[in-house]
Design brief:
Blueprint: E1 7-8, E2 14-20, E3 29-35, E4 40-43, H1 50-65, E5 70-74, H2 80-83, H3 86-93, E6 97-99, H4 101-107, E7 115-116, E8 132-136, E9 145-149, E10 155-158, H5 177-189, E11 195-197, H6 206-229, H7 235-242, H8 251-267, E12 271-274, E13 281-284
Parallel strand pairs: 4-5, 5-6, 6-7, 10-11
Antiparallel strand pairs: 1-2, 2-3, 3-4, 8-9, 9-10, 12-13
Helix pairs in contact: 5-6, 6-7, 6-8, 7-8
Length: 289
């Protein structure tokens, strides 16, 4: 297979390969990235599907045939559409899977993480001729990491952003809206130019996109607060009011992020919660009535 299956990006040291994965709509693929002009990392060993893994492996073989070296495989986090091909590619090419310790813990018994990534990994980019900073960016997932190239100022952002939709924050999978919004702000403060997401095309003007994501989350949280203030006590009632601009078929997914917003509002003492799970009820605090 020729390298024309790899898509060029605005960064000459980054190539993108969208692979079909069991992800959430509207996405159908997860981007795997080849990072490094000669020796390189594979970021996001995404697909569990044999034909997609064969495409990926053929392209890696093409690089190796030209004298390049695959240094390692990096997973931004533990979700299945990001690590579905990890075991196969690591075994085939004899390279380690690298991820955060919290990702290792999430994958225990399913996928083996061989080397840990955290913000102390200041030499990560050296083998591929880049100046890569590892950013621990929890919120969507507890062990989520991004990669920031300090010189070119591009950033591989995993599932912190998408060019296709907003990101689901699921409390049942250790998602946390406080962490997520804080990390979006932190990422924006670094001044990235281009963002390379796991789903969709590269995003130009990274700071503007990150700022827009924060604004969207804050606006959605205000709608959730207003829904509770108007008498919506159950999760279903909150979603029906706060997400009435979204298609009804998306409401079950939206309910996950709605719960994360409700938890953030509870922590800030704007609402109260009684009961748990299906019996949970939310009401405004006295100061918010």
């Amino acid at each position: 297979m020729s390298d024309d299956s790899l898509q060029d990006t605005s960064a000459p040291e980054v190539e993108r390969l969208p692979l079909r994965t069991p992800t959430l709509a509207p996405a159908t693929h997860t981007n795997s990235y080849f990072v490094g002009r000669r020796d390189f990392y594979l970021v996001e060993p995404s697909s569990p599907y044999g034909p997609e893994q064969a495409r990926l492996h053929d392209l890696i073989e093409g690089r190796l045939d030209r004298g390049h070296r695959l240094v390692g495989v990096i997973a931004t986090h533990h979700h299945p559409d990001h690590v579905g091909g990890a075991e196969a590619v690591c075994e085939r090419f004899g390279v380690p899977l690298m991820a955060h310790a919290r990702t290792r813990d999430k994958l225990a018994g399913r996928v083996t993480v061989h080397a840990l990534l955290d913000e102390s990994n200041t030499e990560l980019g050296k083998p591929v001729g880049l100046d890569l900073a590892v950013l621990h960016t929890p919120g969507h997932a507890p062990g989520h990491v991004c990669l920031f190239e300090r010189n070119a100022r591009w950033m591989i952002v995993g599932d912190m952003l998408s060019s296709l939709s907003t990101i689901v924050i699921d409390p049942d999978d250790d998602g946390d809206m406080d962490d997520y919004i804080a990390q979006l702000r932190r990422m924006a403060a670094l001044g990235p130019t281009t963002l390379f997401p796991a789903h969709g095309d590269p995003i130009a003007d990274g700071v503007a996109k990150l700022s827009a994501y924060v604004a969207h989350r804050e606006a959605r949280e205000e709608r959730v607060r207003e829904a509770v203030a108007a008498g919506a006590e159950t999760l279903g009632a909150v979603v029906a009011r706060a997400y009435d601009d979204a298609p009804v078929w998306l409401w079950p997914v939206a309910a996950r992020s709605a719960r994360a917003h409700l938890e953030r509002l509870r922590r800030s003492e704007k609402i109260t919660q009684t009961g748990n799970d299906a019996a949970a009820r939310w009401r405004p605090t006295e100061d918010e009535r």
